[in-house]
Amino acid sequence: MKPMLLLLAALCGAPAFAQPPAAVDNTADIDNSGSGYQGNMTVNQAAGDMQQQANARAFAAGHGASASTQIRQRLNVPADPAMDAKASIGGTAFSHGSGALGVNQSAGAGTQQANALRISIGAQPQSIDDSVLMQQNVALLNNSDSAAISAGHRQVTTSDQAFTGGRGVVQLNQSAGVGNRMANTLSIRVAD
């Protein structure tokens, strides 16, 4: 009886080994999500390969308050520039919300996205220097020769109802393709 079970198990398992490897899905889709959010909401959605996304929030209150953020993204892996990619935000996604919203959506490969928000409430005013604006270090280390390789089809869409009726800070990075680099940085300092 045991040899019969072994034969049956071998026959039932064979089709699983004959399947081709799954293709990478390069489609990112957000539909009717996040509407009516309140407070701090962050979303990272990536489809494809080798994506880097970050949403950083820093809040500080007090006499010498100083909120800070620092994001460093490095990517040193080649990606296929001929791939098709699609990113979409549809319906009423993120509509009628209030607060701080950070959305990174990417389809494809080798994309780097970052949203940084810092808010300081202190007793003394502080100046904002260039280091605040340059604090994002988003660098694609491996560039390819685009003339030698044909590009795939890329599509990015956002519904006309998405993000409507909102209040506060909205940071959005949305991309489809290969090797995109995006960053949003907002720094607010308030003195009592």
General description of the model:
The protein has 192 residues and is mainly β. It has one domain. It has two helices and eleven strands; from the N terminus they run αβββββββαββββ. It has helices at 2-18, 130-133, and strands at residues 27-31, 38-49, 52-62, 71-75, 85-90, 98-109, 112-122, 136-140, 154-158, 167-178, 181-191. The strands form four sheets. Strands 1-5-9 form a three-stranded parallel beta sheet, with no helix packed on it. A three-stranded parallel beta sheet has the order 2-6-10, with no helix packed on it. The N and C termini lie far apart (83 Å). The model is unreliable at 5-21 and 131-146 (pLDDT under 50).
List descriptors.
11 strands, 192 residues, three-stranded parallel β-sheet, flat, mainly beta, 2 helices
How are the SSEs ordered, and which strands pair?
Elements: H1 2-18, E1 27-31, E2 38-49, E3 52-62, E4 71-75, E5 85-90, E6 98-109, E7 112-122, H2 130-133, E8 136-140, E9 154-158, E10 167-178, E11 181-191
Parallel strand pairs: 1-5, 2-6, 3-7, 4-8, 5-9, 6-10, 7-11
